[in-house]
Amino acid sequence: MGNNKAMIIDDMYPSRYFKCADFETGERELTIAGVKTGPVGQDQEIKPIMEFAGEKKLLVLNKTNGMAVQKLYGNDTVGWIGKPITLGLGQTSYGPGIQVKAKFGDVPF
């Protein structure tokens, strides 16, 4: 075993989707660029996916986060385009997860 330099596992296996580790340093305010649907995960289930301006990573929009954005900006996802959204870590029924917040520093929906 010759090469023992430090490696970050998340860097070795990059993801096109946001994950909790992306928010360990704090919340991020992003601008919604669109919502589309596409296959996600090993079972390739079709789910809504949110895109952001100036950001390569995407957010798989679970029902809780989708309903939170709906409360902010209405039922039609076209109306969400160009709107700010804050993402951060929060507790979910499954443990820590990414949550939509009404504004930077606010509590999750």
Identify the notable features of this structure and list them briefly:
single chain, mainly beta, five-stranded antiparallel β-sheet, 36% strand
Structure description:
The structure is a single chain. By secondary structure, the protein is mainly β. It has one domain. 14% of the residues lie in helices and 36% in strands. The chain is built from two helices and five strands; from the N terminus they run H-E-E-E-H-E-E. The protein has helices at 9-12, 63-73, and strands at 28-40, 45-52, 59-60, 84-92, 95-101. A five-stranded antiparallel β-sheet has the order 3-2-1-4-5. A hairpin with a 6-residue loop joins strand 2 (45-52) and strand 3 (59-60). The relative contact order is 0.20.
What's the structural blueprint in terms of helices and strands?
Layout: H1 9-12, E1 28-40, E2 45-52, E3 59-60, H2 63-73, E4 84-92, E5 95-101
Antiparallel strand pairs: 1-2, 1-4, 2-3, 4-5
Into which percentage range does the β-strand content fall?
A: 35-45%
Secondary structure tally: strands: 5
Q: Which regions are unreliable across 5 or more consecutive residues at pLDDT < 50? A: none
Largest sheet: 5 strands, antiparallel
Helix and strand sequence: HEEEHEE
Identify the overall geometry. globular
Rg, rounded, reads 15 Å
Helical element count?
2
Helix content: 10-25%
Write a brief structural summary.
It contains 2 helices and 5 strands; from the N terminus they run αβββαββ. The chain is mostly beta strands and 109 residues long. The longest helix has 11 residues.
